[in-house]
Amino acid sequence: MKKVLLFLSALVFFALAPEATNGALHGKTQALINRANKFGPYLGLVIPNLFEMNPLLQHPSFVPSELVIDFAGKRFRFGTIEKKPVILVMTGLGMLNAGVTTQLLLSLFEIEGVVHYGIAGNANPSLHIGDVTIPQYWSHSALWNWQRYGDGPSNELPLEENGDYTRDIGYIRFADYTTSNVTSCSSPFDNLLNNVWYQPEEVFPIDGDPEERQHAFWVPVDSHYFKISRLLEGLELEGCVNSTTCLDTTPKVTRVERGTSASIYLDNAAYRSFIYNKFNVSPVEMESAAVALVCHQQRVPFIVIRALSDLAGGGTAESNEAATFTALAADNSVKVVVEFIKILLSFPWLLREVRS
To answer: Where is the Nucleoside phosphorylase domain (predicted)?
Structure first.
């Protein structure tokens, strides 16, 4: 490990010029990546924003190296956590940024697994602010087929017969959420927005045939990672921002069935209730499904850890305190991530099995 740190420290003498606007790898950067990969494989830590990354950068378990590689608008930071080589990278907001960043990480570096973490809104009424969730499945719930007005559940969607779209996953009917001061007993509510049908992503796994699509809506995290994550339940988490501002409920780590992502900031109670009742999702946020889909296609093990910062759309006394408890939620997510890595390293046979 000393050799790794000495090598990475020495790389600081390589001045990294900005890459060309087309994102091509220049010789110096390519050489730097090649040499860094000799000290892999790494655990990739994919993080949405700086306020979620900074608690990890300041955590005593993280030992940074002086190597930082900037490429294609992304910064890859090298270091170790509990002596395990890691690469940290910030994605930025939303599905596109998260997907592009994850693909760059997996394409450039020797990555044996991905840990994605951050904060999230909450759709599950049995959970609370500060709780840290570890879902088994993730979906992208904003790939839609928006049905024309006048058609209904019995009408085939455009291009459905070609396999492009499906009615298997289900839909939301906007008329169910129409409000009016005047009601008619003779006719139900109607809405010109009609229905939106949820669609699976097209995926192209590396072990499949190129250009032959498969479909995925619920993407499972790595089964080994999820299994050992049960050892995180019972971990003590922080419940206070300061001496005067504390949560009403002691935060906990909990494994849940499902989470969902979309490039939409969800702060609407009606839609929160709909997707919870429809899909049994707990965390709702804007990046994890993109990370999941890229890892799924590249056959790289991954897990997602999301701390709840608010109840999406409000509805309880503690429900919409995102501004107050964001830092606390970010700190709790980092605490769980570090503990997960410790546990992962205590199972060397698991690392070998996942890697193979």
So the answer is: 45-342
Would the CA dihedral through 141, 269, 263, 89 be positive or negative?
negative
Q: What number of helices (H) and strands (E) belong to the chain?
A: 9, 15
Token code pair at residue 122:
């909450």
| CATH fold group of domain 2-141+204-355 | Rossmann fold (3.40.50)
Q: Would you give the DSSP letter of residue 221?
A: P
pLDDT digits (tens), the chain, 356 positions: 544 444 444 443 333 444 444 556 678 889 899 989 999 999 999 999 999 999 999 999 999 998 999 999 999 999 999 999 999 999 999 999 999 999 999 999 999 999 999 999 999 999 999 999 999 999 999 999 999 999 999 999 999 999 999 999 999 999 999 886 555 554 567 899 999 999 999 999 999 999 999 999 999 999 999 999 999 999 999 889 888 888 888 999 999 999 999 999 999 999 999 999 999 999 999 999 999 999 999 999 999 999 998 888 776 555 456 677 889 999 999 999 999 999 999 876 655 555 55
Q: How far apart are CA 305 and CA 298, in angstroms?
A: 20
Which among 142, 113, 333 has a CA at the least distance from the CA of 224? 113
**From-to residues of CATH 3.40.50.1580 in the chain:** 2-141+204-355
Q: How far is CA 335 from CA 117, 306, 340, in A?
A: 11, 11, 9
- DSSP string computed for 159-195: TGGGTS--SSS-EEEGGGG---S---TTS----TT-E
304 φ, ψ to 5°?
Answer: -125, 135
Buried b (16+ CB within 10 A) or exposed e, 260-282: bbbbeebeebebbebbbeebebb
CA distance 181 to 183: 7
